[in-house]
Write a structure and sequence with these properties.
The protein has 231 residues and is of the alpha/beta class. It is built from eleven helices and five strands; from the N terminus they run αβαβαβαβαβαααααα. The radius of gyration is 18 Å and the shape is globular.
Length: 231
């Protein structure tokens, strides 16, 4: 058996909670991912309040969260996850008729966004990426996010809004600013390293500094901060 196969077999499964108010959608997602590529579904919820309770009970690694649910929405549940210190990474699922909520949900702490009609391989990959803290987006969602960030940005009249001196980002160095700008453009660490003629380790160091200075927890939130200050 190959080493990578052995490593995959030895790794603990990625524990997933499915939260969607449509029972058919929950059933379809379970059939799509349960037992596939080291993923196990540990629970289902039809609303945000139940998702919060099950996250506390089952401690999932990833939650597939419908953005619109009755009562406590996926958006509000994601906020409550962060406030409660729940470690699960949230992937928002959308039929893409909820674009007004995309930025708000990411600010609340969601790590990724996927369309509900995404290919099964895309969903499985997104779950594994989310479990390791890496965001993934459907291409249409990423395009809309950039547009929304531009539409909702409101430059400050009291301070410059471009470059590393833009408030409240004055502590960022020029190289950190360059890395953050590339992240906002959707580049991977290796692509950023190639563009800047540095190692991926150096890029990761800059990212760690940016996360700390801007008090963000993932690349998505970092990208949004830069989009808001460069549009």
């Amino acid at each position: 058996m190959r080493k990578d196969a052995l490593d995959a077999a030895a790794a603990p499964p990625v524990r997933v909670l499915i939260a969607d108010d449509e029972s058919l959608m929950r059933a379809g997602l379970r059939l799509m991912i349960d037992g596939v590529d080291g993923i196990t579904v540990v629970g289902e919820a039809a609303d945000g309040s139940t998702a919060l309770a099950q996250a506390r009970a089952f401690d999932p690694d990833v939650v597939l969260m419908d953005i619109r649910m009755p009562g406590c929405s996926g958006l509000e549940a994601t906020r409550q996850f962060r406030d409660a210190g729940i470690r699960a990474q949230v992937i928002m699922l959308t039929a893409f008729d909820t674009e007004d909520y995309l930025l708000e949900a990411l600010r609340a702490g969601a790590v990724s966004f996927l369309l509900k009609d995404s290919h099964p391989e895309t969903v499985v990959a997104a779950i594994h990426d989310a479990a390791s803290g890496q965001p993934q987006f459907s291409p249409a969602v990423l395009t809309r996010l950039v547009a929304l960030a531009a539409e909702t940005s409101r430059p400050s009249e009291a301070a410059p809004t471009h470059g590393p001196d833009a408030a409240p980002m004055g502590a960022i160095t020029p190289r950190e600013w360059e890395v953050g700008t590339f992240v906002a453009q959707g580049l991977t660490n290796s692509e950023i390293a190639e563009a800047m003629y540095v190692s991926t380790t150096t890029v990761k160091t800059h990212l760690a500094h940016l996360f700390e200075k801007l008090q963000v927890t993932n690349r998505v939130q970092l990208a949004l901060r830069f989009l808001e200050h460069t549009t």
